[in-house]
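Below sits the subject:
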Amino acid sequence: MVKVLRYCLWLIAMLPMVVWAATNNAASSTFVEGKDYKIIQSATAPASPLPKDKIQVIEFFNYGCPACNHFEPTLEQWLATKPKDVAFERVPVVFHPQWDILARAYYVAKDLGVESKITPAIFKAIHQQGQDLSTADALAKFFAQYGVKEQDFNSALHFSPGIDAQMMRGDNLMGVYQAFEVPTLVINGKYSANLGLAGSPQRFVQIVNYLIAKARQEMK
């Protein structure tokens, strides 16, 4: 009787894991090429060199994009627990003239080592607080709130040839990977998924995890 009781208790304890696994497998089994994700046909080789022994995941985004802002909290949660063999990179794209300064602001934040603080703060400032960050002066003052001197911000923004090179690289990657909707995530230069196809941030992450697993299997 005691053994039976212990077995029943073990089954109850295991039930959530079984349900989670069944749900996860059921969700991943429904992911269909052309419906939930795309294979990038034009990229015969990755336009961005793949890191050794890592699965590359590139997010195409912009601070000014409402859909990117909607996805950001879920993405940050995923980044906190992403697999160790995943190398993640953000690439800001410019679909509107006013997005150019925001894309450059991302590279300034990255070059100055404050990207992890600035990115969620800019999204919040633009989309929740309604701040106008469409000028260099406004951004310099905003960065100053996070420990970046206005002089250092302006120097990085206006006198860094590296930012122009990164902007050109971003434009090239966007074209090669056909990332014409944001946010889009590209996995190992082969698979592409976006929030529009996924339908929700949570399902978007499920699709990305599924594609990472496919890429991992192909690397073996």
Confidence is low (pLDDT under 50) at residues 1-28. The chain has nine helices and five strands. The longest helix spans residues 2-29. Residues 32-219 form a domain with the Glutaredoxin fold (CATH 3.40.30.10).
